[in-house]
Amino acid sequence: MIALTRSVPPSITRCELTHVARQPIDYHRARAQHAAYERALETLGCRIQRLPDTPHLPDSVFVEDAAVVFDEIAVLTRPGAASRRPEIESVAAALEPQRTLAFIEEPGTLDGGDVLAVGKTVYVGLSRRTNADGARQLEHAVAPFGYRVVRAAVDGCLHLKSAVTAVSDGAVLLNPAWIDPRVFAAHDRIDVDPSEAAAANVLRVGDRVLVAAAFPRTNDRVAQRGAQIAIVDVSEIAKAEGALTCCSILVRTLGS
Ligand code: GLY
Hints:
This protein is 21% helix and 23% strand. The protein is α/β, with parallel strands linked by helices. It has one domain: L-arginine/glycine Amidinotransferase, Chain A (5-stranded Propeller), CATH 3.75.10.10. The strands form five sheets. It has a three-stranded mixed β-sheet, with helices on one face. It is globular.
């Protein structure tokens, strides 16, 4: 497994914010947390591939939003925030040797954070960043490979994956205040602890689950359901309305 990442830019202090109030971000602490995140991914079996630095793009550490990678195809997005669209080019260049590429075109918008693939089902959040045309274009790109797209309205948080992620093919972790749990009725369900609204964003790597240190109660719930968890602190990155999935694009190395 390759994990594409990108360094935290100094301009992160000017990042997009939608549901989070702006607070000072300690750049050096954010970089240290990001480095620990990369080390955790390596421990879980990933090979880190760093994208080129883009110091002038405030949200560029959140590489997940630039592309959705399947075994058969990579779909480069058209982010809902115009400030983020220049992030795409370098991600496309990195993915070109790995996959056939497709691109979301205007008037579609799509953020990778709004796409959750579980087996052959692809959940797409309709949010302030992802519109119906973006979801339609993604569906058109992946349907030939047998993927079924299921749309879900996102309310109260930035992305679909702020509200729900998978801890296995059979189980999702979600915040029922931000997403309709009925959409995920095909899966076992773990709810976040009510005191930890943002805890649903965990990163599944193989049979392990990377979780954020800020959410101990929810992490206990996940572990009690049998998941093997690894814990990292991304508190500084969270101030930029980012979370665990946002900071990498996982690319399965085909043939392995
Ligand atoms: N700051 C993360 C985003 O708004 O895309």
